[in-house]
Here is the input.
Amino acid sequence: MKTPPKSLAKDRRRARGVHDALLRWYDGAKRDLPWRRSRDPYAIWISETMLQQTRVDTVIPYYERFLERFPDVYALATADNDDVFGLWAGLGYYSRARNLKAAAQQIVAEFGGELPCEASRLQSLPGIGRYTAGAVASIAFDQREPLVDGNVARVLTRLLAIREDIRLREVSDRLWREAASLADGPRPGDLNQALMELGATVCTTRAPACRGCPLVRRCAAHRDGLVDELPHKSRAKAPQALEATAVWLTRRGRILAVRRPSGGLMGGLWELPGGDCKQREKPGDALKRALRGGLGIEAMQIERIGQVQHVFSHRKLKLHVFRAAHAGGRIRRTGFDAHQWLPPAALGGLPHGAATRKALALLTQENRP
Here is the structure.
């Protein structure tokens, strides 16, 4: 097996060759995506935030609706939280929406409504890390800043035949250095998009289309027959198993909904009341405890409907779903930001997460004749 090529940062001639080949390919092969038709830093920031851990085809309609409703940073900064979450519903990772709103307010307060062009200042905003800062700085402001996401890591790992585990800090640091050596040239924004585009459409995880790759003659993994083995990534930890309860609680024909605190998992979203189950606790007992402790109320005519499951990034939730009637008591919230008694048809219109959506679907199915 041949020795892997040296770092692009140490071989400027090779780095320039890769840079130029990527741009030539990108100019002819790039997809027509709505955010590529704009140089507005705000629009580019919104798109890059939505694209984190989300497929392009999924993002497009959300992006278009979001910009129609919040066309600039001032509209987003002054928006109602429920409106922001409502337009985000279905994209997941709701902390992104919460951070967008907070960052918009900071941009208005500290930067006069204009996104800063420097990556270091962009990273001072909530929710903007190294990747998003590099993307916005390079694409919107033509700054020579790198970015590394899953697609870029895969391209660079194969190009340079990097065999070490990409979860290791030293490997991640090297990938950022390699990306920086490529971005240090003309058209850094297009170069970064070319790397991501290549990973998304050609240098894919499975069955990469090496014959159509502009870097195939320069690719050490292709030369050594390692394409299917790279990148090497150690297994992530299995998601933590959790159990919780949710109840369709009625009072005079209305249903109770509660809103989670703004911080933490699913922060700021509405859901059916309930709570976590303790170890070895029966779901029915857990529900009664949650209603007493979280809302100060009792339930009667409790009926178990079934259960739904949902996997978050590091948690696997089993949600036990109940139906019950309010047995009295004034609501005294502990751990929730707000509550509403709503007509059943209005419940689905509140911004809520996937687990609540699945619970509502189960309840709707149970109601069908």
Notes: The mean pLDDT is 92. Residues 12-29 form the longest helix (18 residues). The longest strand covers residues 299-311.
